[in-house]
Fold these 4 entries.
Entry 1:
Amino acid sequence: MRTKEPVITGPHLCSGESGRRILWTHVGALWLVVVVSTAFFGWSAPVVLAGTVLTCVAVDLAMSRLVGSRNPASLPHAVFMGLLVGLTLPAMADTSWLLQIGVVGAVVASLVGKWIFGGMGHYVWHPALVGILAIHFLYPAPVGMVEQDEQFGTPRRAKYLLLSNNHLFVGDLSKSQSPGFYQFGKSRSGLLRPNSYQGWSHSVPSPPNQTWQLYRPVQTLQALAKGGIKNEEHTSQQGFSAVEKALYLSLPPLADAVVGSAGGGFGETSVVAIMLGGLYLIYRGYVRWQLPVSFLAAAAVAAAVLPMPVGSGGEWVWFPGFVGIGQPSELGVLPMIGSSHWFRAAAVGLTYVSFHLCSGGLMLAAFFLANDMATRPTRLSGQIIFGLGAGALTIVARLYGGWPMAPLGAYGALLVMNTFSPLIDWLTRTKPPGK
């Protein structure tokens, strides 16, 4: 009597990749971001990151034991989630207070963001984003760096800490100096003096200070979008547009925002480190390049097109980076691309858009938060729609959003798009033949 051959159900091809291995690779892709954050923000960065990671791991182990779950990928997922929560926190002089904030965010991310839905793979919103949202609601002043004006009691922008170039890794964050920013309408060359901030690599705070107090670039962009900076009348040869004022007389050099020597969260500032980790994930095939590219492309287009009240009389202007530019010979402090007025206007607009892309956690969101397998659409077309929506919403939140959307920016946009992921999956589903 012949025995029946066992029937093996599909899929019949195995890639050799497990969820556990994929998540540990995501953790490894963040190692350079952690190193850079330690260099620019001192040892408070690894201390806070260790606290958030250990908290997520402890909650995960406790809940796994409580519900009887034995998912081997849950532990690396907890480590990755703890890293993401910690990397969005800003450096503070009081490390113990920041550590407490990070632990609260990690607990909320694990319990509310992950386990209340049944554990890994069952949640609707990215758990790290849930923890970040909770932190911004529970501790708006420390993490949003918003102070109350002593005279009027209204919110005002506060400054972020960044170690100077001669105190990397070992600087004392409590010894800080606020640099003299450039005055609107004056060139940088006329303000060169000791202790003036001429960019991170060319400036050293006066002793015994070891740290700079800097605005995040996105804070200046938000002030520009709220009409806080106006175009000057071009009746004289010294007229500046509002965008020129923000870019060249208030913001740091663009290279600082790319390298990471700017104000922001531990893991938000270094575009180079984030992109290297993200490109490695794309190389390994864990992330489809279309998702981060569509995210960044939508953000760039929205930043270049959407109007702002930057006119000399407060009128709203479309394409704010390309209008109100003075004659090329009038402002020798601006970068020149040939002698054409059009090329110079394009240079200003490109720099404006680049600052939007390189600040406010947009890169971290595009490469490490948007590609979560449980909260993004499954099909490629759906991921492109997801990325386009998240990128456009990020800029809309920055330019027009009130609290808490403006400070959350890309994180809030991703939470919104996570909500619509099931709908996007339904709209982009594969239809069987004959249907």
Entry 2:
Amino acid sequence: MSEFSQQRLEHRIMEAIGSLIVSGAIKNPHLSPFTSVTRVELSPDNASATVYISSVPDNRIDPSVKALESAKGFIQGRIAQILKTRNTPVLSFRRDDSYREAERVNRLIDEAMKEIDG
């Protein structure tokens, strides 16, 4: 599969899961409605996909990831209906802390710039 096709499939999975979260189709009280899918990484053979999750209230990320893991079968079934591919990737959900790391790096840069400027 070409890189473009794989990226398009990743994007469609990301949109589908995001839509399920926003619409309330996933019935789990631990899933925050402010949860978002930040990226999806498909394996080269499209057999598995890692879905990265973030949430606005930072303390809601872990319960939301657990809620999505417990609804994995339901989500995969809905994705199979949307994608209409021969095989649906096996999903795994992970918390995405990249924004925290970006904030830390920006803070370090700001501190270094203040020291340089005197």
Entry 3:
Amino acid sequence: MGLKFPNEDKDNLIDSVKKYVEEFKLPSIDVPKLSTDFFESMDIKKVVGIAALLMLMIIAILSMTFGSFSNNSTAKGEKVKFKITEGMDAAEIARRLEKTGVIESGFKFRVLAKFKGYENQLKIGSYNFTTGMTYDEVFTKLLAGAPEVLTVTIPEGFTVKDIANRLSNLGIVNYDTFISKARDFAPFDYIERKRNTFYDCEGFLFPDTYEVTTDMTSEDVLYMMTDNFDYRLSSAMRAKAQEEGLSIYELVTLASLVEKEARYAEDRPIIAQVFFKRLKIGMPLQTDASLQYLMDAPKEDVSIADTQIDSPFNTYQHMGLPPGPIANPGVASIEAVLYPANTDYLYFVADRNGHNHYAYTYDEHLDLVYQYR
């Protein structure tokens, strides 16, 4: 009895074989264009037989071209430190395994990963391999995972970009992925989502020393750091902010400015007081730190041209607070905003050692600038 074999099924079978051949760059197989009548005249046994024959042809070509999958001829025994980081795919892993001598052929590795369904199961982590391992040995390790515990310190005043750089240099996260996730990461209601900020979570990644593992994703790290912020922001701090008429977002934004302007502890509450006074009298905050946030690299001194940068973060051109935090402040800067100094300064300038000097009037301020800068 003939088997009905619709055109689309016939074409799918032929296309699948061609696609498989092309994907693994096998020597070309001439797959004839068979007519619908030919397929309709075949019975099920013939169809199965042809499919089996095609698979045998593929396996035979692989074996003849690349040899056995179970062995490799790479010299054995040399230790290899191997790290898989976020964003690495099976192709890149295969290339690096071959390059370091862990396996003989990255191509074989990819074919096996494809056949066994391992491509998306290879785990992030740091591995101890040796050269000349079998493919089964490598897959066993990569499927089980081998996370390494690392200690990383994020200093006060680091930005999202600074954190991404440090973590990516340690091989914990992929820089681009971390940056992308941070753009709209806001796990708590007090983290306001604003169109004119760069990263929703800027200011809320608490600076601290963390133990991280190399199998953590960017999102895992972001949750860890924002959870820490939420824990460190005590109920007393929240109550004090409410008493002062500050939202948590405003509190952190002001604290980030203090963090970037004050190198020494004694300066923090005085600078916080200066900012509060300027806000009270309707004076622009005019903090260089907000301009530095817009630059690719820090400058020792901002220029007059820098004060003309077109951005809502330019506190020379825009009144009030910037749209959001410009860095991730520590507890000391947050407390400085909650408990500012009892002074009446309106201006400050830092000397070359980072110590700030204060003035009541603009003329006094100009004298200090001339003296210390």
Entry 4:
Amino acid sequence: MAEPGAANPAPENTAGGARSKDEVALELMKFIAVNTGYGRSSQSSAGFSGKPVNRSPEEQADALLDLFERCRGVVNKPGA
């Protein structure tokens, strides 16, 4: 049993801490974006040789905002 006044062993930013659904959606968006290159100006995928995607910074931002909204929809689904 923890002593009175002892530090909380589980900081807020851990997976076990209380987090809002928007924070969870943001972490999911960052995970997807980093691991897939989503929203970058030129994407290359292993095994595919499609045309490089040239996007303006505004288009990249719009793509990431769209991804965030999709992640929010997944996180806010009933039963999630």
